[in-house]
Design brief:
Distance between the termini: 16 Å
Helix content: 25-40%
Order of helices and strands: EEHEEHEHH
Structural class: alpha+beta
Strand order of the largest sheet: 2-1-5
Oligomer: single chain
Number of helices: 4
Length: 140
């Protein structure tokens, strides 16, 4: 997750997903995994080689975004959060103030409790609350 900088148009200063974006159906590629990888590179500097896997956890429609379809994914990288943050910190085009990880316990109920704390935080964006909800119910 990240704490977005105050310079962002939406979600300024809020806890948000590490990378997010909109898929334009008029793009030459409508492969969602290619779009995800592009967003990961643009927002965090992660290359294809540094992305070990991307797993889909939910597909929904969010009223807060006008009912647009949203897909939620979890990423595993070979890099640590500190390594990713050092890239983000040295690039003035990235709009991230802080990057942090969530250690997920093995048990579903323990994971749900840990994620609920973030979900209840008033500074967590609505879309990220949805992602945390779906993650708490996933088998990851």
């Amino acid at each position: 997750l990240q704490k977005a900088s105050q310079a962002k148009v939406t979600g300024a200063g809020q806890i948000t997903s590490s990378a997010s974006g909109a898929m334009d159906w008029t793009e030459s590629s409508i492969n969602p995994f290619e779009v995800i990888q592009s967003e990961l590179y643009e927002e965090l500097g992660l290359t294809n080689e540094e992305t070990l896997y991307v797993t889909g956890i939910a597909l929904s429609r969010e009223l807060a975004r006008g009912g647009k379809p949203e897909m939620f994914f979890v990423l595993k990288s070979e890099l640590t959060s500190d390594e990713i943050l050092s890239r983000v910190a040295t690039d003035p085009h990235r709009e991230v103030d802080k990057l942090f990880t969530i250690d997920l316990p093995e048990g579903r109920s323990e994971k749900a409790d840990d994620l609920r704390k973030l979900w209840e935080d008033q500074n967590t964006s609505q879309s990220t609350k949805a992602a945390l909800y779906y993650l708490s119910r996933s088998d990851l």
